[in-house]
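Sequence and fold
=================
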Amino acid sequence: MYIAMNRFKVLPGAEAEFESMWLNRDSKLKEVPGFVEFHMLKGPEGEGHRLYSSHTIWESEEAFVAWTRSEAFRAAHGSAGGTRPLYDGHPNFEGFEVIQTIAGDA
């Protein structure tokens, strides 16, 4: 399993627009081979921003890399940034290979 994360430092006052952009997008992730699960996380307020993180689980790093090289990826990210800046700088990408999973009973 592979986890791909992007951290966003969302500018003050842009939180609602940022969340709306994510919540109302036409995601095609369920159609992508190797996709398992997606979460958009809302984190704490920092100095001059609120932290958000997209958290995507893939069957493998290879499946994630194939997604990033696909036409579907380009279409999904074609309008990134919109008409005004919503976050400070570029998203910070972090990729992790899962070495252990402990699941709950629920």
User: Anything to note?
Assistant: Strands lie at 2-10, 35-46, 49-58, 92-97. The longest helix spans residues 15-23.
